[in-house]
Specification:
The complex is a heterodimer of chains A (116) and B (114).
Chain A: E1 5-7, E2 10-13, E3 19-24, E4 31-37, E5 43-50, E6 53-57, E7 65-68, E8 75-79, E9 88-95, E10 106-107, E11 111-115
Parallel strand pairs in A: 2-11
Antiparallel strand pairs in A: 1-3, 3-8, 4-5, 4-9, 5-6, 7-8, 9-10, 9-11
Chain B: E1 4-7, E2 10-14, E3 19-25, E4 32-38, E5 45-51, E6 56-59, E7 62-67, E8 72-77, E9 86-92, E10 103-104, E11 108-113
Parallel strand pairs in B: 2-11
Antiparallel strand pairs in B: 1-3, 3-8, 4-5, 4-9, 6-7, 7-8, 9-10, 9-11
Classes of the chains: A mainly beta (116), B mainly beta (114).
């Protein structure tokens, strides 16, 4: 069964450093998402991406964050200058169509980001 | 914006018994309510979902009910089995056609006691 994959599974970085989290969505999917979950808190929506541009974004997704689909398979989340509060699990998801039609988002296993 | 509350945070039931997890939402415009199951080291998997034009949906041992007036929706698992042990998340969104994000509850850790 096709699945969303994410690398690395765990990333440790120093405060102020840039990190790139990578995701490979399901191959025929068109909509891509990033979520994060700070320890002990809810999973929060960050951004959605379609047709090589941001479709929706939350208040959390500020100028520190950017997303890119650099090639036909990868979808990346970049955090420019990490802060301690960026420590969280980051989940990538993809869907074949937007919410209004076939709603299922398929989630990856997550990348645990630790900022020291 | 939308806010989803989920209860309980931990639920322990005997194998074979039923489990019920409840969620409430705040935005009356929300019209899509999925439930995800997360097992250790794996991506969350959709187990059932419901749209606001129906009140109940069932798939074998799993059912979801929706009360739009009260803004409640619940997950029911009957005849629980050890493999049902996982963290379950409810979510809500307004599927207005855009690539909207899901708003999640905090999760319920379901433990099936043998």
């Amino acid at each position: 069964e096709p699945e969303v994959t994410q690398t690395p599974s765990h990333q440790v970085t120093q405060m102020g450093q840039e990190v790139i989290l990578r995701c490979v969505p399901i191959s025929n999917h068109l909509y891509f998402y990033w979520y994060r979950q700070i320890l002990g808190q809810k999973v929060e929506f960050l951004v959605s991406f379609y047709n090589n541009e941001i479709s929706e974004k939350s208040e959390i997704f500020d100028d520190q964050f950017s997303v890119e689909r650099p090639d036909g398979s990868n979808f990346t989340l970049k955090i420019r200058s990490t802060k301690l509060e960026d420590s969280a699990m980051y989940f990538c998801a993809s869907s074949i169509t937007p919410q209004g039609i076939y709603n299922e988002q398929f989630f990856g296993p997550g990348t645990r980001l630790t900022v020291l | 914006g939308e806010n989803v509350e989920q209860h309980p945070s931990t639920l322990s039931v005997q194998e074979g018994d039923s489990a019920v997890i409840k969620c409430t939402y705040s935005d009356s415009a929300s019209n899509y309510f999925p439930w995800y199951k997360q097992e250790l080291g794996k991506g969350s998997q959709l187990i059932i979902d419901i749209r606001s034009n129906v009140g109940e949906k069932k798939d074998q041992r799993i059912a979801v009910t929706l009360n739009k007036t009260a803004k409640h929706f619940s997950l029911h698992i009957t005849e629980t089995q050890p493999e049902d042990s996982a963290v379950y998340f409810c979510a809500a969104s307004n599927s207005g056609g855009g690539a909207d994000g899901l708003t999640f509850g905090k999760g319920t850790h379901l433990i099936i006691q043998p």
